[in-house]
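Hey, quick one: can you model this chain's 3D structure?
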Amino acid sequence: MRLILPLLLAAAAVPALAEPLPPLPAVQPIAFTERTLANGLRVYAIRDAATPNVAIQVWYDVGGRDDPRGRSGFAHLFEHLMFKATRNLKAEQFDRLTEDVGGYNNASTGDDYTNYFEVVPANHLQRLLFAEADRMASLVVSPADFASERDVVKEEFRQSVLARPYGKLESLYLPALAWQHHPYARGVIGSIANLDSATIDDVRAFHAIYYRPDNAILVVAGNFDPADLDRWVDRYFAPIKRPDRPIPRVTVDEPVRTRPVTVTVHEPNTPLPAIALSYPLPPDRSPDMPALMVLQAILARGESSRLHENLVYRDGLAQTVDASLDTRAGPGKLDIIAIAAGGKDPDAVDRALRAQLAAIRAAPVSAAELAEAKTEILTDALKAMETAEGRARVIAASVLVDGDPRATERQLAAVRAVSAADVQRVARTYLADDRVATIRYLPAAEGARPDAGVPVAATVETRPLEAPRDIAIVTPATDAERAPLPPLGPVVAGHVPAPRELRLANGLRVVTVERHDVPLVTARLIGASGAARDAAGKAGTASLAATLLTKGTPTRSATQIARDAEALGASLDTGAGREGSAIGITVATPALSPALGILADAARHARLASDELERARAQAIDAARVTLTDPMALAGLVADRALYGASGYGGAVEGTPASLKRVTPADVRAAYAAAWSPERATLILTGDITPATAKALAERWFGDWRADGPAPAPLAVPTPAATRRTILIDLPDAGQAGVTVARGAIPRGDARYYPALLANTVLGGGYTSRLNQEIRIRRGLSYGARSDLDADRLTGSIMAAASTRNDAAPEVVSLIAGEMRRLGSAPIAESELATRRSVLIGNFGRQVERTAGLAGIVGNMVLDGLPIDEMTHYADAVRDTPATAVQSAAASLFDPADATTVVVGDARAFGDALRKERPATETIPAATLNLDSVNLR
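Sure thing. Here's the predicted structure for all 937 residues.
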């Protein structure tokens, strides 16, 4: 990250990249088998004996494009209902078969598909195949489940579209403007009005029409016996009948836009203006797609990309800018979204975007840009295939979107052959001025009603939902009729690789964790100082210092650092937590040495120049302004300040607009010096590397790093507040309310850590946790409720939280407090505790499957002052923690009587009700909230 003062930097400067760039990363083809059952189900198998897990994915060829007329969002609503009962499975049992045994499940709906995916211990494969077949063949939807889950989807809509800044722009307005005929225009999320119009008969019809074996693919990846897999697939899926009726489709051509279109909308919850440009693209299987992928990377991938370097870094016109390839089976689009920097004219942003697009049309890109883009794309492909689940997803998406399991493989091969002329050609073809649709997304005037937005065109073609005549309403089997769950197979033991560590002569600690499955390595350098040292009123200092690590050294400019790193296929990531700071990178194995050279230069020799500080400060202020309009994020920041008062643990890690303005260059230099010195730093290398290679590389790039100055004084141990307090932050027109109940807990090294971790997981760790069951599953009041135990080296906290519609906020407050109280007052059944042990062990096991996950685990151990090898004992510690210790921790650490409750939302909808239940409620308008003050005013 950084070193000492600038006058000492020149003597030991690391030279700029001195070795040749490695070749393009090699992405090996995925080895799989395929077969098709007589009923039309396509089955793909990817065996990986190195993992103790297995991934099961079922993808259906139905998505938002198939939403019935007047029912936008229906495919997504239906996805939620597939987790309810089947003839042989009780409601929510699917989650019990996955999360409660140490796995997980989820699903997603796109415009072209709906996918359901699970990762479970390998010995549970047969059960999950049975369950997936049962919900394909015999879904049961009760009126109560239908009503509850529809409410949950409404909360998801409020959370992701209404409450999130720019949510409408991305989820609703861009699709509506991009397509005038294709049903893609409606957006997958739909609308609350259309959700309200759906009926349970619609659900049954939709299942009968689209959820059939000839409209699905099954992918299994992981540790399994191929003969067993074939036998089980034949047993559970082959008997499902293939209907003799055709699958209805909307087939429509979307004429390519030939005249530019511009619309202007004014929306609340828009802290900064935004400009969006949208261009029509061909389907993903187009031979032009590899060149378009390279074009997108050159435009917007990383800090050396043209849009970021010019609009964000050089000219300061935009706070962020991105370009995304939204590709699909049908016509796609390329969206470019720039959020204006504070005080900048959105029209100037618009002109700058168009100038960059004109430049890439006018002249060929450079050889360096071309090579960098290819390396980034191929390195990302390696990361996507790092786990069995990732490989399954690649195959499934290739089949459903492109109709060919080898489509991604061929696309990546074609990326290697893309030329500068190809990039210029597709830029001229697809980014022409007469094709663009523009949205000017501006803040609403004070008190003004929202605009009508961008309506879906009346010319968009859809089909009515026509129920088949032969729909059989499935009812739950009786206990006597219910098919028993298949038996479990033998347990496949997992393996947590043991870390190895050494110290260089200068005191630098080097930790290596080997994992050779994929040719990737993550390098992460940890510094032992962070935001907890930020001075009063100067929150964000450590974060700014971390940002400046990559903004220039004596031998590299900020632009050169970005270009050198991105030429290796990755970007340097930096950040500060409460008690530490970090800089890291993940690259293909051959790129590791030059990547470490860049990382070492940035960390050891950061210039911390004043002009770079001012640029970083302006961007951080704009980012903070966006964060402060998000109800859940703001509730967490208020809770931190209320818990920790004037301590550095109470400030916003990323800072506030006011605190960031107070940070001086001297503050940043002090934060840098506190974090970065070899005897207080740890270099972590995880993945495809040996300890011997790690030592050699550490010596090469860090061996001559010398300490300068004494270590900073130890931090004072903070004491979290322990008084009941309720704070209401009035955020007018907020699309949803954010609720957080927080209280102090324990540091990571406390003997009660594992008991508290288990108690927290019972309360709010996962889908089947108590909070989520009560608030989401039973009542439909939130898209998700959870709790977190945040244990640092010196202190800790527990935060339970949920987003909900504004008028339901007081009820959610009561439900969270009630579950926290019940946790400590009534014994936790051993059966429930056993599932939570599995949840923790399974989550940990999946984290160690990735090189970045391994590096994150080791980094936390370092910052928490724990022995590095504790990671190898984690599962045993969770498994062996006595139930009595868990109950004791629950009683002493989770009582809400002395908790701080924060509610952020539109107080007009719930303020009176909350104050009636809690008369001492403090009400603070968001416009006058002061997060840098102990009393928040």
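One thing worth noting: Residues 1-17 have pLDDT under 50 and may be disordered.
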